[in-house]
DegT/DnrJ/EryC1/StrS family aminotransferase
Amino acid sequence: MSGLENEAIPPARPIIGEAEIEAAVRVLRSGMVVQGPEVAAFEQEFGELVAGRHCVAVNSGTSALQLTLMALGFGPGDEIIVPSFSFAASANAIRLVGAVPVFVDIEPASFCLAPGAVAAAITPKTVGIMPVHLYGHPAAMDQIMALADQHSLAVIEDAAQAHGAALGGAPVGAFGTAGCFSFYPTKNMHSLEGGMITTADAGLARTLRLLRNQGMEQRYANEIVGANMRMTDVAAAIGREQLKQLPGWTKQRQANAAFLDGAITAVTTPSVAGGAEHVYHQYTVRVPQDRDGLQAFLRERGVGSAVYYPTPIHRLLPYLVDGQPGPWDLPETEKAAREVLSLPIFPSLTEGQLRRIADAVNEGATR
Ligand SMILES: *Cc1c(COP(=O)(O)O)cnc(C)c1O
């Protein structure tokens, strides 16, 4: 086994277990593979994770965000406040409906939207706020919801990285007008590809169901113009098996994080806000000096790592204005993009591997 001890540790490891394979085969053999009973059961069961909210399954997390913005009627001229320090999908969904992303800075400790900066960015054109529960840490939803209520704004939670995260005992996806989850293979749970929208608003849930299926509830009785963003029953069957295992995986991620918190001394380990439950989609440290050098050192030691995200969204090509970043003032976003490094945290890491990760980080950061 000594060879295995030195095997490279990947930054992430998607899980496809026997239960998922059997579930997929069972649905394939049934011949009923498109959106049907498995999707309905998955929606029902996912509701338990989000305080009983209505759940609408779709074909990706990006579709979940886009469909929610469509259902809320947002489009050209409407401003939606979003962090630039996120995956491009957050802002892409806003642009895909023709609305305008207004980029706001993050809190340095949580890497999530800074409520004070949100307040300063609200204009008469603002229609919504899209907090991102980045890395599995909940955004400051108490303050963000208070601002939204005060200004009558929709809140679309991007919970793509935060299945099961909570603040003050309340789960993410149960704060805003809607919550949007992703089931991409590297997320804390997956359905190969897939997404889920959660909402307390039954009318909004019905509109979302129409929009994902060509505007139809009854076949060929189209009520509105809709898209095809359906989840297949094969995907839902896989998602249902993953959902059963999510609590155990989350505990394992949290235990891995606790180990690394104790063992890593040479860089800044993640912090958890008071009352927050962090589900560690990523375990992200800050490396103020020569982050890329440390990453190369870790690679030599067989320890995978990743930078989420090296380029804030406002600096990506489609978001430049006349070839330049827009007039955004995002110092914490720029700093985070230079400093962050995500270490392996997936549930099946062994104590020996965790020890290797911590030792390599400590050695690499003090070399
Ligand atoms: C993964 C992700 C998405 C998009 O989800 P997909 O299922 O890949 O479309 C959106 N936002 C964030 C923050 C993500 O990490």
The mean pLDDT is 97. The chain is about 40% helix and 15% strand. Residues 60-62, 86-87, 89-90, 132, 158, 160-161, 182, 184, 195 surround pyridoxal-5'-phosphate (CB under 6 Å).
